[in-house]
Every structure is written in structure tokens, then in C-alpha cells.
Design brief:
two-stranded antiparallel ribbon, alpha+beta, 1 helix
Length: 95
């Protein structure tokens, strides 16, 4: 299960991914929440379905659904990158 929380800075957006049957409005000053379940790995697409402004046509959504094992490996790999980046920042700052 994937939990989605949506809000916006300036205008209303409407986050929509038809393959998951999910659509949620992102409204300034408000936190909306929904969820979906990806039954199998793959790449899924959606878009903002609200006429939210001049760049509305350039707001694609892409979801990469992976297995739990692949996700855990990704988390571990990125935790190491974050840790080494923080260490190098501290070293360059003289700490």
C-alpha cells in the first residue's frame, strides 16, 4: 500500500493515476490524503487533471512500482549515499 499526501503552494492541482483508480486534489493550505496498492511491478503514468495554469500540459506523473526487496535495496543504497554526503560536508566545513 502506498499513502499519498497532497498539498499545493499556489493553485489547485489534481493528481491522477488512472491505473490505480486514484485522483486527489492538491489544494493550497490543505493536506489531502489517499492511498493505492500496486499489484505488480511496472511503470505507471498519470497527470494533473486540473487546469492549474500555463504549464498545465507539462505536469506528467510517473510511478515506478518495484518489489519490496528492490525497494529495500534502493533505501539501503541511498542511505549510504546520504551518509557519505553528510560526512564529506562536515569534513569540508572543518568539523
Amino acid at each position: 500500500m502506498v499513502r499519498v499526501q497532497a498539498t499545493a503552494d499556489d493553485v489547485i492541482h489534481s493528481w491522477s493515476v488512472p491505473a490505480f483508480g486514484v485522483k486527489i486534489d492538491a489544494v493550497p493550505g490543505r493536506l489531502n490524503e489517499t492511498w493505492f496498492k500496486a499489484e505488480r511491478p511496472g511503470t505507471y503514468y498519470g497527470q494533473c487533471s486540473q487546469l492549474c495554469g500555463i504549464n498545465h500540459g507539462f505536469m506528467p506523473i510517473q510511478i515506478e512500482a518495484v518489489s519490496k526487496d528492490d525497494f529495500d535495496a534502493w533505501v539501503a543504497q541511498n542511505a549510504q549515499k546520504s551518509s557519505s554526503a553528510a560526512t564529506s560536508q562536515l569534513a569540508s566545513a572543518g568539523h
